[in-house]
Amino acid sequence: MKIFVRVAETGSFAQAARQLHLSPPVVTRVIAALEDQIGVRLLTRTTRSVKMTEAGSGYFEDCRRILADMADAEAAAAGSHGNPTGTLLVTGSVMFGQIYVLPILLEYLDRFPAVTGRSLFVDRIVNIIEEGVDVAIRIGHLPDSGLSAIRVGQVRRVICGAPAYFEKHGIPRTPADLAHHRIILPTGAWVSPDWHFGTDGKTSITVHPRLLCNTNEAAIAAAEQGWGLTRILSYQVGEPLADGRLLAVLDQYAEKPLPIHVVHAEGRRTAAKVRNFVDLAVERLRAYPPFQ
Questions:
Q1: Cα–Cα dist 128/125, whole Å
Q2: Alpha-carbon span 159 to 192, nearest angstrom
Q3: Separation of alpha carbons 115 and 236, rounded Å
């Protein structure tokens, strides 16, 4: 079954043989014996490709499920579900990952020296299954999926600027006043020039930015220098707001907060490396005052 799955995945007897450290004739004989045993053709061979038949496609999915269950059972018997080992891949957005997730990952690696950590901090939605990610920290409302998600807090969008800017240009009192202000817009994956207001999000203003920044850090820096107003997530400007470098405006028109979730693929048995990191991340993130 393992050989059949590898041939089906690679579409090549020769490539499957190389990956399994077997000779091509051995792989060919195994597949032929398997088809004889089942009594149905699983693969269609040509000089250039190998494709699954209709029966082969169904058998392929069954084999993957059975092999995954076998690996799960073997891991449990070997004790890997009790002692974290292997490589743990964690993802999150760039700023959130660097500020909040990385310290948790470092603490986790100190606790479990048999685990190697990998971080993938990018401002895009990562497909956990396709990219082999163990745990993702997501900000925003989640679509329905077969993933396990634990809510750990929330953040809000804030419109902010420097005191010097407001002294020169005045303070906007309503969303419509933004038409008369300099707008700095980050150009990340989740940013839009359509700014929504109110807990129902029905009030919408389309802003016309004078400055576009490809990073949140650049937009925040421009706002701190008094050039204009930007709209950013609250955790990204926690320190500048706390020490007065930036001031938030239009809070009375704010949208509903965005939830923060710790997300992972939920299996029959969650591997110890994932379970222990999720437990630590949930504990630490829920303790941060900015997320309450």
A1: 9
A2: 14
A3: 30
> How many other CB atoms sit within 10 Å of the CB of residue 236?
23
The pLDDT tens digits of the residues spanning 185-208 come to 998 766 789 999 998 888 899 999
Determine the 3-state secondary structure of 66 from DSSP: helix
- 75 band by pLDDT with thresholds 50, 70 and 90: low
10 & 144 share domain: no
113 φ, ψ to 5°?
A: -65, -15
Which structural domain, as residue segments, surrounds residue 35?
A: 2-78
Q: Please tell me the total count of domains within the chain.
A: 3
What is the Cα–Cα distance from 247 to 165, expressed in whole angstroms?
10
Average pLDDT of span 163-178: 96
62 and 109 housed in the same domain: no
Pairing of strands 258-265, 147-155: antiparallel
- 228 and 145, same structural domain? no
Backbone φ and ψ for 259, nearest 5 degrees, come out as -75, 155
For 158, phi then psi, to 5°, come to -130, 145
Domain end (from 44, 78, 112): 78
CA distance 273 to 278: 9
CA–centroid distance for 280 within its chain: 17
Nearby residues of 19 by Cβ (< 8 Å), 6 or more positions away = 6, 10
C-alpha distances in angstroms, 38 versus 57, 60, 61, 65, 69?
Answer: 14, 13, 16, 18, 21
